[in-house]
User: Fold N-succinylornithine carbamoyltransferase from Candidatus Egerieousia excrementavium.
Amino acid sequence: MRHFTCVNDIGDLKEAVKKAQYVKQNPYADSALGKNKTMLLIFFNSSLRTRLSTQKAALNLGMNAIVLDINQGAWKLETELGVVMDSDKPEHLLEAIPVMGSYCDIIGVRSFARFESKDDDYSEKILTQFIKYSGRPVVSMEAATRHPLQSFADLITIEEYKKRERPKVVLTWAPHPKSLPQAVPNSFVEWMKATDYEFVITHPHGYELSPSFTEGCTIEYDQKKAFEGADFIYAKNWSAFADPNYGKVISMDKSWTVDKAKMDLTDNAFFMHCLPVRRNMIVTDEVIDGPNSIVIPEAANRVVSAQTVLKEILLNL
Ligand code: CP
Assistant:
């Protein structure tokens, strides 16, 4: 593996899960692998889990980790090509990226969709410039369209908790007051499609994800029907994809909040969410605090997914 930006980079999923299970059981077995290697974590957006879990993964592998918040202490970066730089952004990505690359061996980048241009977001304008100009392996720590470290952790978690070989997994939209990217659901769809699970997506009309991700998926607009017999409920909010509403909140319908009555329709399903989660918008206290909520072990597996990915990259440096 050179870069890690999507499910295709991980190779065979069953093998990847086996490697992750080994990493989880033997977290310090490869502590010499990253000796004298430096991981640089670049954040254009806020983070709790990704920031901590990716650092922890790098440290477990014996690497040094440096974190830079672009919007707190670094120069504001110009990202447009060919512009006259007379705005408040004194440095261009074209210099900043190779400079950052010269200080490290692996770069992690978090860069959300900006919702200014669907084309810019869906061409992964920032992430691709890091791949092009850093000269280093690049790990997506959530980009405009995907969050692969999260999806890999989700898969590891489902494999740990599943009670049958081919569980029914349901991705459900749920309400939220702010406009959120489509990266987590896109990515989850991509990873679930690569398994042999039964997979259903449910959301209100108008919240269809990009067909480039959902092609071939079962989409059920009746949330209660989708929940029937489910083994895992994966809740997430996302903003609209379709024009002219790209990036907008078009509904905050609280009837889509995941509550106990809906969970009772499932086959005693586990509740999952990538976090952070808005309680009593996305999910009721009763469900997230209940015995079938696995959001904490899911988040803990972010160290495992990151460490498995970083190990593979280190082995190929
Ligand atoms: N799930 C996730 O990526 O969390 P953070 O945004 O806190 O990193």
Observations:
- The CA atoms of residues 101 and 134 lie 5 Å apart.
- Residues 295-315 form the longest helix (21 residues).
